[in-house]
Amino acid sequence: MNTPSIALITGGNRGLGKSAALALAAQGSDVILTYRHNAAEAAAAVAQIEQLGRRAVALALDVGDSRGFSDFAAQVKRALSQHWQRERFDALVNNSGMGHHASFAETTEAQFDELMNVHLKGPYFLTQALLPLLNDGGRIVNVSSGLTRFALPGYAAYAAMKGGIEVLTRYQAKEFGARGISVNTVAPGAVETDFGGGAVRDNKQLNAAIASQTALGRVGQPDDIGGAIAALLSHGSHWVNAQRIEVSGGQMI
User: Which of 35, 124, 155, 158 is catalytic?
Assistant: First the structure.
């Protein structure tokens, strides 16, 4: 019997992260998912993964607070030993996120710092803390945004952090190559989730406007992104490395 792969997904209790977790479980992976506050939501995600016949564990993590990363890595190590009798996992998906919508002129330093801590500093130092636990030949997917390609007013700070993640991806791919670890970016377009207050999902005018700008004629769904992440982590994509892969249905082309 083959040993199942184990994927660690930050923010795997909801939205795109949960969709990715379920898609990975459907193709045979076990999952460690993180959540910030909602333990019940995380437990429900674990139950759904287990219904697919895979093993899952939920661990609390604030990606915006790097002071907790060493302790979190120790928790991951214990979970691997306790639930899988293993010392390492196979794939890391840096997915956790939040947003602020504000013009460049009105963005506060506090908003900027929060975005930086969650979207750039967090993935940088969390990956650093988890790297000793990632298998040689493993995979990393960093989640970016279509907003690094097309510019919409109100997202300057958010998109700047995601642009940093895309550059970081290439440097990680270069440095981790000696261990056979591939690193790629997935950049979603607009998706119907509760991100940013659920505007894309709940504002019919906004939803219709985005759909009209998208080649495939609709706004993205979480499973569109989760499925793409799972495909990128499948065996057939092992030679894809240092790439930015936009998953937007052809938004604003």
Answer: 158
The model carries a pTM of 0.96
Is 124 marked active-site? no
253 found inside a domain: no
pLDDT in tens, 197-244: 777 887 888 899 999 999 999 999 999 999 999 999 999 999 999 999
Cβ count within 10 A of residue 225: 26
Residue 252, in any domain of the structure: no
Residue 170 structure tokens: 């290439």
CATH of the domain at 119: 3.40.50.720
